[in-house]
C-alpha cells in the first residue's frame, strides 16, 4: 500500500463535506486536483448514493467521474489513496450501509480486500451467492480473520487459566504479566542516571503462579444463529476452538434456530465451521437447552452457556422450566446476550429476568471476559 496523500485542513473539510462545499472551498483558495480529486471521486462513488436528506438513493451515481468506477477499481483506489483505518471504514460502509454485495462476491475485490471482521460477516451473509472460485478466495479471507481472533483469545485464555499470582514466591519463568515491578525498581535504583533520566535494569524479577488443578468439566455452548447474532456466532466458534485445546475441558458447540445442529466435530476448524453455518430462521431456545441437558454426564461438573437475544419463538414457560431443571441439578447456566469484541447487548430483558430467577446468570461479555468467568467457575 502506498503512503496516503498529505492534505491540508481545508482540503480535508472539502472531502468530508462533499460537492456542496465547493463554493466555500474555492473562496478559501482550495481547488481539488490530482490525488485529492481521485479521493473525492472514490468517496462520492460510495456516499453519493445518499440524497440531500441522507436517505439512500441507489439511482444516484455521484459526480466528477465517480460513476465510471467499478467496485474492483474502487477497492484499488481506496487502498492507494487512504490510510488503513479509513479503508476499513469505507469497506464497512459499503457492505453494511449500502449493501454493495460484490465487495465480497467478486474475486478481484476479495484479492484486494483487507481481512477484517466486517468483511468476514459479509462473506458469511453472502457465501450462498458465491461461485466456487470466489468461495475459495472467500475462505482464505475467513481463515485470516479467524486466525487473528484465535491468536488474541488464546493469549487471554492462557492468562485466565494459568492460576493466580503468588506474591510470596518468585519464579524463573520470565512472563511480562508476572513482573514484580516494585522489586525491579528497588534493586535497580542504584543504576539510575539523573542527567539522562534513565534507569538501567540489570536484573528482572517475576512472581510465581499457583497452578490450577482442574477436574474434568463439560462446557456446552448453545449459539443462536439468527442473523442478528452473527457477531456472537463468529466469536463462539473461535472461543470453542480455543477451549478445545485446554486440558480438563470437554467442549461442545451447538447452533440452533428452530432446529438444533451439533457442530462439535468441526470445532477444531472454526473456519470450516463458520462456512457451514446457516444464518436466519426462527428461534427455539428451549429445544436447544433440552439438547444440552441430554449431553451432560455429571451435572455438577457441567456449564451450559446460552448465547442468544432471548426472544423465544417457542414456549417461554418451557424455556424457564428447562433452565430451572439444569440449575436445580447444580449445573451452571450462563446466558449471554452478546459475545463479541464490543459486548453491546440487545435482548429480551423480561425473559432474561425470568432466567435469572430460575438460577441462571445473564450478561454480555467479550470472549476474554467469558474465559475469565469460566476459569473462575471451574477453578472453584
Number of helices: 15
In the predicted model, the low-confidence regions spanning at least 5 consecutive residues are 52-67
N-to-C SSE string, H for helix and E for strand: HHHHHHHHEHEEEEHEEHHEHEHEH
Instruction: Give the strand content.
Output: 5-15%
Terminal residue distance: 50 Å
Number of strands: 10
Shape: globular
| CATH evolutionary superfamily of the largest domain | von Willebrand factor, type A domain
Class of the largest domain, according to the CATH hierarchy? Alpha Beta
Radius of gyration equals 26 Å
Query: Strand pairing plus helix content: what structural class?
Result: alpha/beta
- Named at the architecture level, the CATH assignment of the largest domain is 3-Layer(aba) Sandwich
CATH topology of the largest domain: Rossmann fold
Mean pLDDT: 77
Main sheet specs? 6 strands, mixed
- Spatial ordering of strands, largest sheet: 7-6-5-8-9-10
How many domain modules?
Answer: 3
**Approximately how much helix is present in the residues?**
40-55%
Amino acid at each position: 500500500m502506498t503512503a496516503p496523500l498529505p492534505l491540508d485542513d481545508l482540503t480535508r473539510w472539502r472531502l468530508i463535506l462533499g460537492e456542496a462545499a465547493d463554493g466555500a472551498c474555492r473562496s478559501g483558495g482550495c481547488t481539488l486536483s490530482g490525488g485529492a480529486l481521485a479521493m473525492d471521486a472514490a468517496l462520492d462513488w460510495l456516499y453519493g448514493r445518499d440524497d440531500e436528506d441522507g436517505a439512500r438513493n441507489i439511482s444516484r451515481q455521484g459526480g466528477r467521474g465517480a460513476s465510471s468506477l467499478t467496485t474492483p477499481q474502487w477497492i484499488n483506489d481506496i487502498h492507494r489513496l487512504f490510510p488503513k483505518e479509513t479503508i476499513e471504514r469505507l469497506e464497512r460502509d459499503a457492505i453494511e450501509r449500502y449493501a454493495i454485495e460484490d465487495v465480497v462476491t467478486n474475486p478481484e475485490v476479495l484479492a484486494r480486500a483487507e481481512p477484517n471482521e466486517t468483511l468476514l460477516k459479509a462473506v458469511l451473509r453472502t457465501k450462498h451467492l458465491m461461485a466456487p472460485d470466489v468461495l475459495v478466495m472467500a475462505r482464505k479471507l475467513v481463515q485470516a480473520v479467524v486466525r487473528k481472533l484465535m491468536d488474541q483469545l488464546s493469549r487471554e485464555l492462557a492468562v485466565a487459566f494459568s492460576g493466580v499470582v503468588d506474591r510470596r514466591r518468585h519464579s524463573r519463568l520470565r512472563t511480562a504479566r508476572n513482573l514484580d515491578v516494585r522489586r525491579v525498581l528497588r534493586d535497580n535504583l542504584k543504576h539510575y542516571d539523573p542527567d539522562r533520566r534513565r534507569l538501567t535494569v540489570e536484573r528482572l524479577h517475576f512472581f510465581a503462579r499457583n497452578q490450577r488443578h482442574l477436574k474434568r468439566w463439560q462446557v456446552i455452548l448453545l449459539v443462536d444463529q439468527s442473523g442478528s447474532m452473527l457477531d456472537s456466532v463468529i466469536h463462539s466458534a473461535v472461543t470453542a476452538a480455543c477451549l478445545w485445546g485446554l486440558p480438563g475441558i470437554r467442549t461442545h458447540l451447538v447452533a440452533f434456530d428452530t432446529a438444533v445442529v451439533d457442530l462439535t466435530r468441526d470445532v477444531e476448524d472454526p473456519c470450516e465451521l463458520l462456512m457451514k453455518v446457516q444464518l436466519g430462521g426462527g428461534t427455539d431456545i428451549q429445544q436447544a437447552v433440552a439438547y444440552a441437558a441430554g449431553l451432560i454426564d455429571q451435572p455438577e461438573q457441567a456449564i451450559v452457556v446460552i448465547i442468544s437475544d432471548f426472544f423465544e419463538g417457542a414456549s417461554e414457560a418451557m424455556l424457564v422450566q428447562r433452565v430451572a431443571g439444569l440449575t436445580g441439578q447444580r449445573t451452571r447456566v450462563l446466558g449471554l446476550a452478546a459475545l463479541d469484541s464490543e459486548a453491546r447487548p440487545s435482548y429480551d430483558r423480561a425473559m432474561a429476568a425470568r432466567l435469572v430467577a430460575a438460577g441462571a446468570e445473564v450478561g454480555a461479555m467479550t470472549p476474554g471476559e467469558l474465559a475469565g468467568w469460566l476459569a473462575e467457575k471451574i477453578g472453584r
